[in-house]
Fold this protein.
Amino acid sequence: MKKIVLVIVLITAFACKEEVKKTEEGTDTYTPTEIIEEVISEISIPLVDQWDLKGVSITETDLLFNNQKVYSISRIDEAKTFKYAIAAINSVKIAYEGGKYKISVIVKKGNLGGQLGIRIQGVYPIRTDVVFDLNNQNVKGIFKEEDLTYNEKTEMEDLGNGWFKCSFIAEIYTSYFRLVFGPTDESQQVRIWESLTDINSDLLIIPSSMKIEELAN
């Protein structure tokens, strides 16, 4: 009887040891998988003084972030003339049949608003909108009017000191599009983020950080 009990104890101890060993091995060998997008090419972006401004102003500040000049983009009262407030890069030319692209820019919330709207616009009203909420550090939402883009994905990378790299990734099926962006606030729905509000929202932006990159599928 004592021999049987001893055998059971030894088997139980060995099983427990194996379980601990497996747990420890699993913990020690676990490595998070980082998804890295392969960049095929980068689309040339016009200089900030060539951006199309409607209802916003862009002014250079005395600030630098990572040795890059910081600008302030603000809604202005003259926006009432246009009924909206945007900055735009017109006629962005991409691959003839489109492809997978990543649009990114580094921004920081200003004094009012605290949200960044981005629009990929085809022949109006065909478009895709996304709004990044810098106050809550998340994406407010995505709105699509017809199928200009597919498989949309967003990223917000915290760069520290209130700065974020906001990225929108999608398959874009057109040869040209208009890139529209600007400050907005929580009172606006995603689909009309550029519309007028009672707040002259503003953001800090690094124009040289703006990129449009073609990615491998």
Remarks:
- The helical segments are 2-29, 79-82.
- Confidence is low (pLDDT under 50) at residues 1-34.
